Amino acid sequence: MKSWSPVDVPTLSLEQRGGPLTVHDTATGSRVRTSPVDGTARLYVCGITPYDATHIGHAATYVTFDLLQRVWRDSGLDVRYVQNVTDVDEPLLERAERDGVDWRELAAGQIALFFADMEALRVIPPDHYVSAVDGIPDDVEAVEKLLADGTAYPVPVPEDEATVEGAGRADYYLDLAQQPTFGTVSGWNRAQMMDVFAERGGDPGRADKRDELDPLLWRAGREGEPHWDGGSLGRGRPGWHIECSTIAQRYLGTGFDVQGGGTDLIFPHHEMSAVQAAALQGGAPFAQAYVHQAMVAFEGEKMSKSKGNLVLVSRLLEQGVDPMAVRLVLLAQHYRTEWEWTPALLAAAEQRLSVWRSAAEACSAGYPTGLGAQTVARMRAALADDLGSPRALAEVDAWARAVLDGEPASPLVPEAVDALLGVRL
Ligand code: ZN
């Protein structure tokens, strides 16, 4: 599927490159140094379910992984970046039904809005933006393989549920009891898992599952629901997690560098994507590190579609807010710290942007690069250290103060603000 428009990322006019990136890995609970092989870093970030517009919480996630790519690029690596779009899933179908619209039209409209938001925020687009629907043939092949291996099993469709022509009378699940790596991404115990499983798309109450937590791999086509060719599985549609297992494997292979997403995806989504991929690959690790963006709150509660307390990027832009100021609000927070959106944060970011722009205007190519080079070195060090964006911003603040106090400066820092932080002055 076509992704959003490319973003120009300048290469800094410095001999020295940035250093290697360390990140906090959820799976080990520790700081790990990313060490991509063959000069290419491989990143997978879970995409949106396109049933509602991009809110600041989503934007925080995509800007965080945009920052991560910029640090990798600055250190001389190429980046291969893949993102999916869950264009068939319960929440999308439910919303389409509620609003009386075709789910395909709803998805297309929301994807277009998401693209516009990402472009405005200058987020680097993925090399492969993959629709879950397009990935269905791979999902079918994967489930067939798991069944042949005896690691997946059928669960009969309840008798009172009508299936479409060509569908089987069974749904298929993964047998977690056979998966020794289950639990290693989240590190959660069973009680923690059971606490959120149902509210995050799981079906612990489904009769005849071997374990309440076993994830759905393939759902036989029910009357009134979309369905696709499922080969020997019969017509139906894939479970949520298998799409990311197969898309990531197809475009990035096994053991790719970073799996990213919001903390609300740690369990079950990232746990299940990883365990399904491991089941398909004889236990090989899905990713080297799992990196998670903390949740963003608004008016005292986690921003979420179900609560309706959303700050939408598109609405801020309609109100005339500079998208670079929105980006600066996000970068002023460390990605692992929960925070709350407030108008004061936006006002502070607008002020900061204005100061930085004034300083950039005072720069000249004929001026010395010493102050700039020192500032860039500090920005790089901050970002390489678990994406320390608040510290990087503070370095630019100090630089801007010096320039506005009359220190002559080259345009190196404005270049770095563009290349490393994605903020165009
Ligand atoms: Zn995913």
Q: What small molecules accompany the polymer chains?
A: zinc ion
Which structural category fits the helices and strands? Answer: alpha/beta
Range of strand content: 15-25%
Head-to-tail CA distance between termini:
31 Å
Number of strands: 14
| Uncertain regions spanning at least 5 consecutive residues | none
Radius of gyration based on Cα positions:
23 Å
Strand order of the largest sheet: 5-4-3-10-11
Total helices: the number is 13
Description:
The protein has a domain of 101 residues: Anticodon-binding domain of a subclass of class I aminoacyl-tRNA synthetases (Four Helix Bundle (Hemerythrin (Met), subunit A), Up-down Bundle), CATH 1.20.120. 40% of the residues lie in helices and 16% in strands. It is built from 13 helices and 14 strands. The strands form 4 sheets. A 5-stranded parallel beta sheet has the order 5-4-3-10-11, sandwiched between helices. Helix 7 links the parallel strand 10 and strand 11. The two termini are 31 Å apart. The site of zinc ion has 5 residues, from helix 7.
